């Protein structure tokens, strides 16, 4: 990954079974709006880090 970069590692399936080419995937179409009152405690922890 250090030599090839993050996008190539994702394309090769380094982090799981799903592979995504650097120029493919769902992009903004894969983003889902959060419902009113949605809460994810992990998000707060990660954003404060």
UniProtKB/TrEMBL annotation:
<dbReference type="Pfam" id="PF09043">
    <property type="entry name" value="Lys-AminoMut_A"/>
</dbReference>
<dbReference type="InterPro" id="IPR016176">
    <property type="entry name" value="Cbl-dep_enz_cat"/>
</dbReference>
<dbReference type="InterPro" id="IPR037086">
    <property type="entry name" value="Lys-AminoMut_asu_sf"/>
</dbReference>
<dbReference type="InterPro" id="IPR015130">
    <property type="entry name" value="Lys-AminoMut_A"/>
</dbReference>
<protein>
    <submittedName>
        <fullName>Lysine 5,6-aminomutase subunit alpha TIM-barrel domain-containing protein</fullName>
    </submittedName>
</protein>
<feature type="domain" description="D-Lysine 5,6-aminomutase alpha subunit">
    <location>
        <begin position="2"/>
        <end position="44"/>
    </location>
</feature>
């Amino acid at each position: 990954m250090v030599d090839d970069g993050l996008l190539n590692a994702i394309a090769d399936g380094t982090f799981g079974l799903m592979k995504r080419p650097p120029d493919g995937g769902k992009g903004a179409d894969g983003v889902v709006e959060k419902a009113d009152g949605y809460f994810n405690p992990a998000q707060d922890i990660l954003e404060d880090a």
